[in-house]
Design goal:
By secondary structure, this protein is α/β, with parallel strands linked by helices. The protein has 21 helices and 16 strands. The protein has a 9-stranded mixed β-sheet. The longest helix has 22 residues, at about 235-255. It is globular, with a radius of gyration of 23 Å.
C-alpha cells in the first residue's frame, strides 16, 4: 500500500492556497457579498494579541467563504503577512499534526516564521487533541495569528475553555440574519430606509413578504443567492446539511449509535419550533428515555441545529426543576426543508416567525439571558433577565397579526408581568402596526415583527451597541 507522500501533500496545500501564486481574488469570491460579521472578525484578527481565534458556526453558514474573503483582504492590504489555509479533515492530511502542516508551510513559502503571518486550520474538531497542539503553537509563535474553525460548537467551546484558557477567543458566525438576507437579495433599499435611526419602513407589505421568504429560505447564503437551490430545499438543507450533521458529525464526535432515534427526535423538535416542550412529553411521544433525550438535546445544540430557552415565573425567577422549556430551530428554514414552505396565512407561521425573531440574537452575548415567562394565569413570549440581579429588563409578546395589539386580553399577561416586576414599558410585535400608548402608567409599544427582526439583526453584528440597548431596539 502506498503512503501519501510529501509531494501529494504539497500539491494539495498549493491547491488550497491559491494566493501563494496570485493575490487577486477569483471572480466568484469577489462577487460574493460580505457578511455583516466580516468587519468585527477582521478587526479581531488584526489585534496584536497572542491568542488564537476559534471560529464557530453551523454547516454552510459561510465560514470558509468568510475566511477566504479575510485572506484576500489581507493580501490586498498587505498587513497579514504570508497565509496558510488547511482544511484539517481532508484525507490528504490524515495523520499529520498541526506542527507538520506549519512546517510544510515554511518550506513551500519561505518566510521569516518570527514575523507576522496568518494560519487557518478549518474543520479542526476532527483532529484529536487539537486544542493542546494549537495552544502550543500559539505559545511558540507569538507573531503568528491562528484561526481554527469548525461546525461542532459545544465540543469546540468546551475544549477552548478547558485547554485554551487565556489563549483562545471564540467568535460565533450565526446563520444569515434577516438584515443580511435583505442585503444578499438586494432588497434592503426597496423596503427600508436603513440610514435613519430608528429604521423607517418604506413598504411594510413588501417587507413582510421578504420576511416570509426568509422564514422559508433564509439562513444559508447559497440558498439566497441561488434560485435552483431554493427550488430543491429538501436536498440542499435536509440531505446536505441536516443529515450530514445527524449521520456524520454527531456520531463521530459523541459516539451516538442509534441514529434513527436521534433523527426522529430532531424531526419532532423541528415541527414544534417555538412551542413549549417538556422532557416527559418528548419521552412519551418518541419512546426515548428522558436521560437519553437530555443528552440528545445537548448534542443538537452543539451542532447548531436547535437552541433552548429557559422558563421563569411571573417574578422572573428560574424554576428549580425545569420541566418545561422552549426549543427553537437555529435556522427556521430547516422546517421548510423537512415539511415544506409555509405561506403567510398558515397558522404555523406564527411560531416560525417567533423562531426567526429569536434567532436574530444568536450571535449576541445577551442571548443567554433570554427566557420566557410562564405562570398559572399567563405567559410572556420573551423576557430578558439581568443575570446578576435576576431582575427582568424588558418583556416582549410576539404576534404575527394586528389583532392582538388591539385586544386588552392579549396585553393582560405582559401588563401583569410589568407591574409585578416594576417595568415601565412592554412590547408587542404586529404584522403592520407601529404605535405607542399607555395603560395604567405602563407604556405599550407595538412594532411590526419583520421590522424588529431587521433591527435586532443589525445590532447583533455590533456588540457594543447591542449591549447599550439591552438587546432590544427602540421602536
Amino acid at each position: 500500500m502506498l503512503e501519501i507522500d510529501r509531494d501529494a501533500i504539497a500539491q494539495r496545500l498549493a491547491l488550497d492556497n491559491p494566493w501563494w501564486q496570485s493575490a487577486e481574488a477569483p471572480e466568484s469570491l469577489a462577487e460574493w457579498p460580505r457578511r455583516a460579521y466580516f468587519a468585527p472578525l477582521s478587526e479581531l484578527v488584526r489585534q496584536s494579541v497572542q491568542r488564537a481565534i476559534v471560529l464557530l458556526g453551523a454547516r454552510r453558514v459561510g465560514k470558509t467563504t468568510l475566511l477566504r474573503q479575510l485572506i484576500y483582504d489581507g493580501m490586498r492590504k498587505g498587513d497579514l503577512g504570508p497565509v496558510l489555509y488547511a482544511s484539517v479533515d481532508a484525507p490528504t492530511y490524515s495523520g499529520l499534526r498541526l506542527e507538520d502542516l506549519l512546517g510544510l508551510f515554511e518550506e513551500l513559502t519561505p518566510h521569516d516564521p518570527r514575523a507576522r503571518r496568518l494560519v487557518v486550520f478549518d474543520e479542526i474538531q476532527y483532529l484529536p487533541d487539537w486544542e493542546r497542539h494549537l495552544k502550543d503553537l500559539v505559545d511558540t509563535h507569538p507573531n503568528t495569528r491562528f484561526i481554527a474553525s469548525g461546525s461542532a460548537g459545544a465540543a469546540l467551546k468546551r475544549k477552548s475553555a478547558e485547554s485554551g484558557a487565556g489563549r483562545f477567543t471564540d467568535f460565533e458566525l450565526p446563520p444569515l440574519t434577516f438584515a443580511e438576507f435583505l442585503d444578499f437579495a438586494g432588497a434592503t433599499g426597496e423596503v427600508l430606509d436603513s440610514a435613519t435611526v430608528p429604521t423607517q419602513v418604506r413598504n411594510i407589505a413588501q417587507l413582510n413578504e421578504h420576511f416570509v421568504s426568509y422564514v422559508n429560505f433564509g439562513g444559508y447564503p447559497e440558498v439566497v443567492r441561488n434560485a435552483a437551490i431554493r427550488s430543491d430545499m429538501e436536498r440542499f438543507v435536509r440531505n446536505d446539511i441536516v443529515q450530514k450533521v445527524l449521520l456524520q458529525d454527531l456520531p463521530t464526535l459523541y459516539g451516538i449509535t442509534n441514529i434513527p432515534e436521534l433523527n426522529r427526535l430532531f424531526t419532532t423538535l423541528a415541527y414544534n419550533s417555538g412551542q413549549l416542550i417538556s422532557l416527559e412529553a418528548l419521552a412519551g411521544n418518541a419512546g426515548i428515555a428522558k436521560a437519553t433525550i437530555a443528552r440528545y438535546l445537548e448534542y443538537l445544540e452543539a451542532a447548531f441545529l436547535i437552541v433552548r430557552v429557559r422558563r421563569v415565573d411571573d417574578s422572573a425567577r428560574r424554576l428549580k426543576r425545569e420541566r418545561n422549556f422552549k426549543v427553537y430551530l437555529c435556522n427556521p428554514s430547516m422546517r421548510a426543508a423537512l415539511f415544506g414552505p409555509v405561506t403567510k396565512d398558515e397558522d404555523a407561521l406564527g411560531a416560525l416567525a417567533e423562531t426567526a425573531l429569536v434567532t436574530q440574537y444568536l450571535h449576541a452575548p445577551l442571548f443567554s439571558d433570554l427566557c420566557f415567562a410562564r405562570w398559572k394565569d399567563g405567559e410572556v413570549d420573551i423576557v430578558r433577565v439581568d443575570p446578576t440581579r435576576q431582575e427582568p429588563l424588558w418583556a416582549l409578546e410576539v404576534k404575527w397579526s394586528d389583532r392582538a395589539c388591539n385586544s386588552e386580553s392579549d396585553w393582560a399577561p405582559s401588563l401583569e408581568f410589568a407591574k409585578r416586576n416594576g417595568l415601565d414599558t412592554v412590547f408587542m410585535t404586529s404584522l403592520t402596526i407601529s404605535r405607542t400608548s399607555e395603560h395604567g402608567g405602563i407604556k405599550r409599544v407595538v412594532i411590526p415583527l419583520a421590522k424588529l427582526a431587521y433591527q435586532i439583526a443589525q445590532l447583533s453584528a455590533n456588540q457594543e451597541l447591542l449591549r447599550s440597548t439591552f438587546g432590544l431596539p427602540e421602536a
